[in-house]
Amino acid sequence: MDTIASLFSFITTPVSWVIVQFHSVYGSIFGPDTGWAWGLSIVSLVILIRICLIPLFVKQIKATRAMQTLQPEMKKIQERYKNDKQRQSEEMMKLYKETGTNPLSSCLPILAQSPFFFALYHVLNSIASNDTIGVINERLLESAQKAHIFGAPLAAKFTDSSDKVEALNSTVLDVRVVTAIMIVLMSLSQFYTQRQLMTKNVDTTVKTPFMQQQKMLMYVFPVIFAVFGINFPVGVLVYWLTTNVWTMGQQMYVIHNNPTPGSKAQAAYLERLSKHVAKHGKTRNRRERAIVKAIVAKGRDRNEYERKFINGLNKAGLAAQTDGNVIRSESSAAVQAEDGTSTATATVPKRQQPKRQSKSQRQSGTAKAAGEPTSLTKDDAPEDTKPAAKKGDAKPVGNGSTRSKAQSGQRKGPQRPKSPSKK
Fold this sequence. Notes:
Blueprint (H helix, E strand, L loop, with lengths): L1 H6 L1 H22 L4 H18 L1 H27 L4 H15 L8 H21 L9 H9 L1 E2 L2 E2 L8 H6 L4 H29 L8 H21 L4 H24 L6 H17 L5 H13 L5 H12 L2 E3 L5 E3 L5 E3 L5 E3 L14 H6 L59
Helix pairs in contact: 2-3, 2-6, 3-11, 4-5, 6-11, 9-10, 9-11, 12-14
């Protein structure tokens, strides 16, 4: 413990100071020696830390999505150099450098709050050992030892002996029941957070080993929390349960409002956005305009849900513009098609199928328009049925446009003389 104290002494004093400041506020409301005052001080410490880590959380989301985008390329490198691990690592590092991604970025929030976690652990352990630490003096130390959360002392552990628990004015049963419930809640919140990420916010079109690893961690992390949780003081369990609940709520917000492209969450989000835009004829805010703008810019590279969103706007008489706005589609308005090209909707006439002709019309070559009488008149009679020109008539000039046609049943050209009949 002395080693841990020396490693995190630079942050132990600030953490104890923050707890004392929150305790002075809540102590004036609930009483300075109550579990509510000290418990809410720890919860407020978590909230303050997580608010400060929001920029790192945003960076974590971008890094995770970048890693998901690189999964197909990473899989190709693994298959190409599966027998050469050194070359495989070199190609992976080269890919990270070219794309500007960092695999460790997804772990930044956990790594950033680790010093606060160990500092709080050391503070609570010092309270249990009746040692002053940081700005917590003897008066505050005595007040913290009196604080109980549902009957369990703030500094008690699941593995503490009965003598140690009795010294903190509690019983072993109370401590183990409270710590067991908090460990179960902590493990379940961690499992639900990871499961929510895997089932809703992962691109289902890409099947890679990365997804299998994440699925394995979904079951491994809760077990790790359960095993190590029996050695955590009640105050540390409060800290870790609070940060898990914060992470779960933060992730639910991101999945609901800014889902991963190609995921089930994106399909649900675009369906909600399509209904709102179809109802009001416009996007609501800058974030929605940015999403519509990104979808329009993809063109042919849109996924299934994005194409469905654009087609839904077109059916509603709307057109998504390149700047992210949505306008009513008129005769001169261009509508974004599935392949990203523009087409006019109101100026294209509807193609009509020709009506079927009767047998007499097909034989005569004089098909009539729909609604006209189909009986043949003298002028409408076929030319091959007209009487042949007489011998004295003038020959027509030209290519034979007025040339008399052979009568029906006669052979064209010079006729052979009939042979005289034998008598």
